[in-house]
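Posting for a labmate who doesn't have an account.
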Amino acid sequence: MALARGFAFSQASLQDYADCPRRFQLRHVLGVRWPTGYDASNAEWEERARQGAAFHRLVHQHVSGLPVEVLSATVHDDALGQWWQAYLAAPPQDLPTALRRSEARLSMRVGGLRLVARYDLLAIDPGGCAVIVDWKTSKTRSDRGSLERRWQTLVYRYVLAEAGTHLNGDTRIAPGQIELVYWFAAAPAQVERFAYDDGQHLAAGERLSATIAEIAACEFEEWPLTQNLRHCRYCAYRTLCERDKAAELGETVEPDLEDDLFEFDIDLEQIAEVEF
């Protein structure tokens, strides 16, 4: 089953494939939105994702120079207000100041197919440090191990090194210059930092190439379901796959709210994407 012409991979779609190939097929190949049986728990999740999109919009506008008091006056939601106050009270510290790009997009080709990264914030001193900041609005702070295993951590650093030259005075950003910072609304003073190096970059490129080639070559009429039912509890397609009852019996894996922002049109001024 071929990918659609012009299909672009992202950290979110790669994570879908890692969690469940069938979910990847339904969402990204067949374009199935929400199947019959979409229930209240998924409706709550969608609302939280929309609140997360609103938070990202607020921070984007703040980084772009809008006054805090003007932005604060637009907040009329309790959860959003708590996240906003947490951001104002404890933003990430010691970020480069020369160049700041909020909701920036970079894209590149891997094996002839397009890979897109959308960054919450890039803070760069050309020739010096290049810091990626990602805002997390999930209920709890993610542990370092789970963050390290997620495709987001790999994709964001890899794409910046490969496609961020124009942000670094037209000089390639070396992996050793890059750091990824996760900021948590649930624990704003407890950021998680991931450095980068040449060895990690080489391994990331190999893994990306192999995974994208595997997906592109998939010929199953119906892609396989995950064997880990923990991934099914919050999946929009669990009723379609007849996994709703089984998923409720075991532990759950709470998905990443920010992954789902790829599924919502939050219209952050339609910032231009740069492709390399």
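Reply:
Got it, the structure tokens are right above this. Strands lie at 8-10, 99-110, 113-124, 130-136, 178-184, 187-195, 273-275.
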